[in-house]
């Protein structure tokens, strides 16, 4: 997908783990062009799209009194870890899996300044049999409900199709869609306010979240006890991977109540810290403080024999969400996050200069070529 | 799922075709209860849910100046027919498949009186390889765009995950989510206005649409030439099945412009004509006029050896959408539909009496026990 530094032999990269973005990207580009061309229809309804939201994490419409934001997000392959671990431990991990799925949608939706309001569940099973395991199904329901409670969203409904022949037998394809409002409209955050002098606040992750799982699963082959290999005493690799993704909407809502409107937000997901380069503008992002690396991520980096550059280009490495605010608000963001039970660090600042991310404590530089999302 | 009349030996029912609702239903009920309990969160945001929309086809929130409606819908297994036919004919059917997927969401969303505004695409492939077939991928993009154009919605974005290990290799799991507004609020249609004397207008279907495909695919085993068996001269069974689902939002939008607000709407999908019993009230629905049966549906009924009762309880049998309006508006509804290129019939009326659907020309009665959706 993007140019990467050569990596030592024995290193396990994301592409080696089986995801080939080169094949997907032409379709994505074609789809993005076609999608952009549909914006004209909004005039028919007396509305307009917020064009700057194309390329951002959620799509935004101007519907008059407020903005409307919506998104669909797939969990990915984290359920495969849950299924393997359930075989090994006889526990169900689908309460956490439910939170992961909702987090994928919620944490993206809030980047544009939206308050999430409604979540819809998409649970496509490989056959009716999936639902025979009542413990697992109930865990999915309860975890979904609990995540909705945390984010104060209404669970509007959803789909539970049985798709034998499409979804593999015994598996389930999970996704969430989320709709929210940007209200008042001054909360809109699609990048126009970001500028030099802004501080970068990083919020802690709980672990791998739901990105990098192909790599994490591939790695199991290298571990003597597989998923039961201990990451730290008493914590297996499998359990550590299954720590549910942090839900960050309590923080963004808390910021609003505290009178802080972020200049920009980035959900640190599929491209690791390269997501800090997401904003379309040309700025230098200088990081002076790197949050502690979550043990499971340090474990993955070590066993995959990745250098720091490779690890930070793929995994969240302990930082799940970035909030860009005026420097004078940065400490307050940390406090609001902490009041939500989420650790946060004033990690760096935005500067004039080439488009690049400088992680100074690790001597890493990512340039414009390292992230091509649009 | 529901009590059904005994069927003659040799009959192929929906349950025999491999979908067991008994296994799914306890989960659905548990999920519905948990979902309903999340409505309390809306007060935090100064909003409220339209509780009557639970159990309807789309979820509705009251956000002040208008209502917000949202939904996610899965296509189901129609892609398996497209994939088989592509092997046989070297054509791609994914433009029609795209329309089917969008129709599943749009045709449900409009039942509550919403104007669809944004569609998100959920295209989960069994691996990056799915996207290697550029013709197929491009057809999917173009069909999606065209359906958005027909419905005048913005294609907001979506997800194109590669889910090896969850989605079967070479397959794709397709879903759409749709968000819309009920604006002005007087367009809300969640059933409170339906009453005796209302007319039932049925809109034509194009064929099987996207429900009943498990049965239709199972049937292929009985056909001498499989999907290439002719339904009528020059039209193969496979091609006939793949006729894209009608998009009905031009009709509901046309009605609004013509000054007609339906008292209720029903999208005729998974339970065939039993969906006409969807409204929670106790009314008798008397049908005096049955639309012509689409050839492919007549073919399925004949080869599956289903009697009329079984066929109308599973398939749309030529009627894809029902609109309930005051009797004096009925003929106008037919005209608006026809101006959109969709045939329609004033097919019956709502009466006081037991909850039942009487299809008089066919001597069929469905009672309250025949549809348990809530």
From TrEMBL, chains A, B:
Pathway: Purine metabolism; IMP biosynthesis via de novo pathway; 5-amino-1-(5-phospho-D-ribosyl)imidazole from N(2)-formyl-N(1)-(5-phospho-D-ribosyl)glycinamide: step 2/2. The keyword Iron-sulfur does not apply. It comes from the Bacteria. The keyword Nucleotide-binding applies. It catalyses: 2-formamido-N(1)-(5-O-phospho-beta-D-ribosyl)acetamidine + ATP = 5-amino-1-(5-phospho-beta-D-ribosyl)imidazole + ADP + phosphate + H(+). InterPro entries: PurM-like_C_dom, PurM-like_C_sf, PurM-like_N, PurM-like_N_sf, PurM_cligase. This is Phosphoribosylformylglycinamidine cyclo-ligase. It comes from Roseateles rivi. The lineage of its organism: Bacteria, Pseudomonadati, Pseudomonadota, Betaproteobacteria, Burkholderiales.
């Amino acid at each position: 997908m993007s140019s990467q530094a050569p990596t030592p032999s024995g290193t396990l990269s994301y592409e080696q783990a089986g995801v080939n973005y080169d094949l997907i990207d032409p379709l994505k580009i074609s789809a993005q062009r076609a999608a952009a061309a549909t914006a004209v229809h909004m005039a028919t309804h007396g509305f307009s799209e917020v064009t700057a939201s194309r390329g951002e994490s959620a799509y935004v419409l101007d519907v008059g009194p407020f903005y409307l934001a919506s998104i669909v997000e797939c969990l990915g392959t984290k359920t495969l870890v849950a299924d393997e671990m359930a075989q090994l431990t006889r526990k169900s991990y689908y309460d956490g899996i439910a939170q992961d799925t909702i987090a994928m949608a919620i944490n993206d939706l809030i980047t544009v300044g939206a308050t999430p309001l409604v979540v819809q569940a998409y649970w496509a099973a490989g056959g009716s049999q999936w639902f025979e395991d009542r413990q697992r199904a109930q865990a999915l329901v309860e975890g979904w409900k609990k995540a909705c409670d945390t984010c104060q969203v209404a669970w509007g409904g959803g789909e539970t199709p049985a798709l034998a022949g499409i979804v593999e037998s015994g598996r389930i394809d999970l996704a969430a869609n989320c709709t929210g409002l940007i209200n008042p409209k001054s909360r809109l955050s699609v990048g126009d306010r970001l500028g030099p002098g802004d501080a970068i606040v990083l919020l802690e992750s709980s672990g791998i979240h739901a990105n990098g799982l192909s790599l994490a699963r591939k790695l199991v082959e290298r571990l003597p006890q597989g998923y039961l290999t201990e990451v730290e005493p008493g914590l297996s690799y499998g359990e550590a991977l299954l720590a549910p993704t942090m839900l960050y909407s309590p923080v963004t809502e808390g910021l609003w109540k505290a009178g802080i409107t972020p200049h920009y937000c980035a959900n640190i997901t599929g491209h690791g810290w390269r997501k800090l380069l997401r904003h379309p503008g040309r700025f230098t992002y200088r990081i002076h403080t790197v949050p502690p690396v979550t043990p499971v991520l340090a474990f993955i980096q070590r066993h995959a024999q990745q250098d720091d550059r490779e690890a930070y280009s793929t995994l969240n490495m302990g930082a799940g969400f970035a909030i860009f605010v005026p420097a004078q608000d940065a400490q307050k963001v940390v406090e609001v996050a902490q009041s939500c039970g989420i650790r946060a660090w004033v990690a760096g600042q935005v500067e004039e200069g080439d488009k690049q991310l400088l992680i100074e404590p690790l001597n890493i530089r990512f340039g414009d070529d390292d992230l091509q999302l649009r």
